[in-house]
Design brief:
77% helix; 15 helices; single chain
Length: 324
């Protein structure tokens, strides 16, 4: 049974409250328009899974320090900046059920707000002289950009195979969760082996997290109704890659042609979803997701039992088994 986030947060409730206040303070400016927008962003924040991984990783390795709060604010500032910029790039009007910044204040303002959050995060790390943390997070955001561009390149030709798929999600999704775990460890100690271990732990969870998102797009009784967003955007996800690999040449050519030419049509989306279901793509992706989850537990279980380790296990289960 998947535990609710409130229960999982128990060992770090105090730290999360302090972090939320400091995060709000880190976004303040002398420009009323900017403050209105950042206030709006804070109000529509998500589940804060990355700060949870960061604080639990810090506590697992040692104790939360001032550097841990800096690391959490840095991660969230840069992550929020990337989301604001993503909405502009994707011309998205909504995120998490709320209107996006670009929908309310137009693209020019949204880009500038994203730039402000990015530079504020960098400035915060430099002010606190957290160069090591800045290196970890900067590497992650470079990987995210490279992963996004690689995915765009491959979407044009629909020639992505499984090895390229994992390279994309390792960079685009897993790198930030990995960096959050590594930054949490780095904020409490100088043990490079331990920091690397937490990075590998976060990376495996990030990959499982993305596969779960892939499954959402095809919809089952387990994850909800079909969405087809990835199909519309011509993204080659693991269930579809596997299904195409199982198909004969004629069927594979037909499905790829349909996605290339008619991915916006509802009947084509339905055809692709049915094709993936019938080809065993969902079962294959689900198995892969659980394999990565098992790898994460192998790493986690090298630490002694504790309330913090249990919360990390529960958080892993939450991100892998979540329904939305």
């Amino acid at each position: 049974m998947v535990k609710p986030l409130r229960s999982i947060q128990a060992p770090i409730q105090k730290e999360l409250r302090i972090f939320e206040q400091r995060f709000k303070e880190s976004m303040r400016s002398t420009v009323p328009l900017l403050d209105r927008i950042t206030y709006y962003i804070v109000r529509r924040k998500g589940k804060q899974v990355r700060p949870m991984f960061l604080f639990l990783a810090a506590k697992l390795c040692n104790q939360v320090t001032e550097a841990t709060y800096t690391a959490a604010s840095l991660v969230e500032l840069l992550h929020t900046a990337s989301l604001v910029h993503d909405d502009v790039v994707d011309d998205a009007n909504k995120r998490r059920g709320f209107f996006s910044v670009n929908a309310l204040w137009k693209n020019k303002v949204a880009v500038l707000v994203g730039d402000f959050l990015l530079t504020r995060g960098l400035r915060l790390a430099l002010k606190e002289k957290q160069i090591g943390l800045l290196q970890i997070i900067s590497d992650a955001f470079e990987a995210i950009t490279v992963g996004e561009l690689l995915q765009i390149e491959k979407a044009r030709r629909l020639d992505i195979d499984e090895s390229v798929y994992f390279e994309v999600i390792r960079k685009k999704t897993a790198s930030l969760i990995a960096a959050s775990c590594a930054a949490g460890a780095s904020s409490t100690c100088d043990d490079e082996e331990l920091i690397d271990k937490m990075y590998r732990f976060g990376e495996t969870i990030g990959i499982a997290f993305q596969i779960r998102d892939d499954l959402f797009d095809f919809g089952t009784a387990d994850v909800g109704k079909p969405l087809g967003i990835d199909i519309k955007e011509k993204k080659m996800t693991l269930p579809l890659i596997y299904a195409l690999r199982q198909a004969d040449r004629k069927q594979r050519k037909h499905i790829i042609r349909q996605i290339k030419r008619h991915s916006e049509k509802q009947e084509v989306i339905r055809e692709v979803i049915d094709f993936v279901h019938q080809s065993g793509g969902l079962d294959y992706a689900t198995k892969a997701m659980h394999e990565y989850k098992a790898r994460a537990f192998e790493i986690l279980h090298t630490f002694p039992e504790s309330e913090t380790r249990q919360s990390l296990e529960d958080l892993v289960n939450f991100v892998v088994e979540r329904r939305k």
